[in-house]
Amino acid sequence: MNQVAEPFEIRRLGADDAAAFSALRQEVTRDNPVPMGLTFEEELTRTLDAFRAQLSSPLPNAMFGCLLGNELAATAAVSRAGQFPSSHHKMVMWGVFTSPRYRRRGLSRQVVDTALQHAFDHGVNRVNLQVYLPNEPAIALYKAIGFVEYGVESDAVCLDGYYHDGLHMTLVRAKHNKPRPPTAPGSS
User: Fold this and answer.
1) In whole angstroms, what is the distance from residue 93 CA to residue 62 CA?
2) Which whole number is the average pLDDT over 9-17?
3) Across residues 103-120, what is the average pLDDT?
């Protein structure tokens, strides 16, 4: 995988980022709706006010964005699995996507790791997610981080008359494979 050569910033997104978030979602969905789990036409029905509200969810819920310059290039979010304390030991990861123009540069790994660290810093022990199939790049990323498969939901979404399964994956804090710091060329 190529690493990011240009400077980038990862930060928590807020209501003011709704337009950039919407534009990125539309770009990703136009390219391939399967990972998003909805059609481009469905994505176009999402309003900026709905995105503002979503990006304003109270902590520990959080959406993180990777920005190259002023452009939102990748995102990842974590949200509580339920409102009651009995489920506050886990979160759900969602909204993990990267602009097709910036893939294979390590951005997804950076933003996913930031979201995971945020979850773990808020006392979470487990993070769950669902990947709509096929999506081998996402599965490979999640497995490299330490996620394991725990089930498949048949026909999880129907896009343009085609059914796609949903692969459920989970990561326990103790199994998180944190990225290794980059090494200088020629070092071991």
Assistant:
1) 10
2) 95
3) 94
The packing angle between helices 48-55 and 18-31, to 10°, is 110
Query: Is 44 strand, coil or helix?
Result: helix
CA distance 131 to 34: 9
Rounded to 10 degrees, what is the CA torsion of 117, 118, 124, 129?
Answer: -80
Separation of alpha carbons 142 and 144, rounded Å? 5
| Residue owning tokens 């409102």 | 83
pLDDT at 174: 86
Q: What is the mean pLDDT of the chain?
A: 89
Region 116-142 average pLDDT: 95
SS3 assignment, position 128 = strand
Partnered with residue 98 across adjacent β-strands are 74
Contact 51, 44 (CB under 8 A): no
pLDDT of res. 35: 86
Q: Cα angle at 43 between 41 and 16, to 5 degrees?
A: 145
